Amino acid sequence: MFTRCPSVALKASASSLCNNLTVLSLPDKQSITYGVVHKAFVCITNVTKGSVVNQKQVSCKGEGAHSSSAVLQAKWCELPERSVLVITSVKGAQMFETDGSIMIFWQALGESQEGVYSHFARGISAVGDKYICVGTSEGKIMVFDIPSRGTAVKLQETLSSHKGAICELESQDQRMVSADEEGNIIIWQSGGHFTEIMKINGKGFPCSSVCFFEDLIIGGYATGHIRVFSNSTGALLIEACAHARWINAMDVCVTNGLLLSASEDTFARVWKITVGNNPSMEMVFQHAIPDVQLCGAKFVDFTGDMFGVTGYDCGEVVMFSKQ
After folding, report:
1. CB 3.0-4.6 Å disulfide test: which of 106, 115, 135, 262 passes with 123?
2. Over the stretch 111-133, which tens digit does the pLDDT of each residue have?
3. Measured between alpha carbons, how far is 283 from 64 in angstroms, rounded to an integer?
4. Which residues of 86-110 are buried (b: 16+ CB within 10 A; e: fewer)?
5. Beta-bridge mates of residue 177
């Protein structure tokens, strides 16, 4: 179904982080930009008409003028009137223009609670027409109101239903789904204020990646399982032992129902999701990259004809395209 094609070179290797690949595709400009976290930097590679035209590194600054902070995640958030590069770190969340040239906002984390050994922001998603949400290690989700231009970003509210650290956020239209290190999933409805719609209890293992597809919520877990839930009832519809180790990243192509998963077990797998009265999931492609713990995976276009994966200490985005 897919075959390996030339890789995209990075300025530095990928850190061992979940969801460590973000993609900004601009079909009208025949341009695809890849972002991968390396320690305190985000390595950005722009490919236009099949050729690498620009590479740069965007740093996430710490409190001092010359200091930097360890980055946990980076993602391009695409809103109807604006796209923003969001970077989360042990210090907080920073927002940049899409090319990373100008920082437009910085939300620092407050003092950590007594006895908390790790303090960070992680989990990023654009929601609805004007919101960007960012999770934290305390289980909170910060909701930012993003203007169509300028730097007047406003922290609208903070959601506090999770008790464990946020792993990932994802959205579909006006709804957002959040997942934490205890495997709990919460569905939210955006609007004037975000409202908790439903909670799906976990089993004590992190839900490291989560996706929406039509009336389904798909979670990838540290145990290697993929679980598919009903978006309306929260019922478990499908459970698959998809990988032998931690699932680090997933992505879904909504136009054809393809689900991409990447794991520490070196395998990238593509699944076909069928919806209806009896939803099903079938593996249609797999490829192992020997001795590489995969940590990021994304479809790079809206058709699902091409995808890329990243791996720990690997200095390239490994690409696959349809035969």
Report:
1. 135
2. 666 555 578 999 999 999 999 99
3. 48
4. bbbbbbbbbbbebebeebbbebebe
5. 170, 187
**Cα 235 to Cα 106: distance, rounded to the nearest angstrom:** 38
The Cα-based distances of 216 to 84, 92, 200 in angstroms read 27, 31, 13
**What beta strand segments (E) does 141-279 contain?**
141-145, 154-159, 166-172, 175-180, 185-189, 195-200, 207-213, 216-221, 225-230, 236-241, 247-253, 258-263, 267-274
| 284: CB partners within 8 A, 6+ apart | 1, 258, 270, 271, 272
Q: Which of these, 28, 39, 113, 43, lies nearest to 85 by C-alpha position?
A: 43
CA proximity to 135, closest of 171, 99, 169, 102: 169
**Could you say which DSSP state residue 111 is in?**
P
Name residue 308's beta-bridge partners: 298, 319
Full strand arrangement of the beta sheet holding 103-108: 71-78, 83-89, 92-96, 103-108
Q: What is the pLDDT of residues 162-190, one digit of tens each?
A: 999 999 999 999 999 999 999 999 999 99
